[in-house]
Structure formats: C-alpha cells, structure tokens
Amino acid sequence: MSFRRITRSRPILIALAAAVVSGADTSVASETYTKWTSGSGDWTNAARWSAGLPNPYKHVEVHGNSIIRVPLGIYPISNLQLGKESLDHVRFEVDGGKMILLQDPLDIGDLAGGDAEFILKDGAFHNCMDTYVGGGMGAPGHAGRGTLIIQGGSYLSRTLILALVGVRNPSSQSKVRAPWRFMCCNIFMSRRTSVRTARPGWRRCHLH
Questions:
Q1: Hey, what's the torsion of the CAs at 194, 144, 165, 132, to 10 degrees?
Q2: What confidence score (pLDDT) does residue 102 get?
Q3: pLDDT higher than 50, residue 31
Q4: What pTM value is reported for the model?
Q5: What angle do CA 123, 193, 75 make, to 5 degrees?
Q6: Could you give the CA distance from residue 83 to residue 43 in angstroms, rounded to a whole number?
Q7: Measured between alpha carbons, how far is 162 from 147 in angstroms, rounded to an integer?
Q8: Nearest Cα to 69, choosing from 102, 97, 50, 101?
C-alpha cells in the first residue's frame, strides 16, 4: 500500500474513532435489536426503526422491500444484516456517510429466496469484522443472493466471504464490483461468484 493511500484514509479513520469514543459513555440500550421492516428512506429516519436508530449496542437488520440511503454523517454501529429473510429484497446505498461496524459481520443476502444489494457511492464503510455476500455462511437454507458494488469512497473489511456453495446450497450467488479503493485481508469464493474490479487492487488480497 502506498503512503498516499494511507493518508487519504487516515482522516476517515480518525473521525470514526472519535465518534466511537465520544459515545462510549452512553448507557447500553434496553432494546437488543432494531429492525427496518420495509419501505424507502434515509438511515437517519428514526420512525422507520423498530427500536430507534442503530448504535454500537443494537443488532441491526433490514427487511422487506426496502431502499435505504446513508447520507452525510458518522455512524458507528454493531453489525448490519441486509435481506436476511426469504422474502426480503433490500437495496442499501452509502452516499456520503461514514459507517463503521464494531462487533459483528456485514451480511448481504442470507436465506434462500431473498436478495440484497449493497452500494458504496461515496463516503466510507469500514468493517472490523467479516463480510458475507450471498448466503456466505454456507449453512443449509442460507442460499440468498447478494451483490456488493463499490463505485467510490473507501471500503475496508477483514475478510470477504462470497457464496460458499455446496451440495446443500446450490443456488447461492454473489456479485462484487469494485475499484482500487476496495481492500480486505482474505477473500473466499466459489464458482458461482462474479468479481469485477476496475484496477488490480486484488493483488493485496489472498484469494481462496
């Protein structure tokens, strides 16, 4: 990684870290889960969430036929599950916001029959944990369709797991499209995985 790329990401990381520290004294929320059940709108619309806006202490799920846009702002959260159920059809767009996952993975499309699409247009999405795209857990029935598209901004993840297809999950599908701003440590993929990158940044990843 060049020094230029490190310095470009550094202000984002500092801002996200500051946001987490400033909220560290917040009492743990009484509600463990907060869910977006259906519909379109901005991430910051508290009325759409079952237990208020997501924060580092709540498990976050997005369901139904939904389109969510993450606007300008800094959003530290615990985890993010998109399109977990079999009838979910979710489109999630980060458009200027800066989001960091602190505890659990990003799941894009999980159970068979459902699908989810994650699009990073601008801003940042930094994941301290793993990213599963398209029923990547590989358990029976986890054969949803997932798409990860990075058009701009900064995306960081520890591990990217794409549609671990086996005898039990023949229909899992994953698609990834990303420029050089995409970075992760390890990538696990199957024959049903589609990966396209605008620049050869994948050389810094370990493919399995």
A1: 70
A2: 93
A3: yes
A4: 0.74
A5: 20
A6: 16
A7: 10
A8: 97
The answer to whether residues 184 and 159 touch, using CB atoms and an 8 Å cutoff, is: yes
Strands (E), 18-88: 33-36, 39-42, 59-62, 65-70, 73-77, 80-82
> Is the Cβ–Cβ distance between 21 and 39 less than 8 Å?
no
Query: CA 145, CA 109: separation in Å to the nearest integer?
Result: 5
Domain residue spans of the chain: 3-24+32-207
**What is the C-alpha to C-alpha distance for residues 144 and 130, in angstroms, rounded to an integer?**
17
Question: What value does the mean pLDDT take over residues 152-167?
Answer: 74
Residue 100 CA, chain-centre distance (Å), reads 9
- Quick check: 132 pLDDT over 50? yes
pLDDT per position as a tens digit, 52-106? 999 999 999 999 999 999 999 999 999 999 998 989 999 999 999 999 999 999 9
Tokens encoding 106 = 């990003």
- Find residue 174's DSSP bridge partners: 146, 193
- The residue type at 17: A
What's at 206, amino acid-wise?
Answer: H
Position 188 pLDDT exceeds 70: no
Which residue in this structure is represented by tokens 């005898």? 167
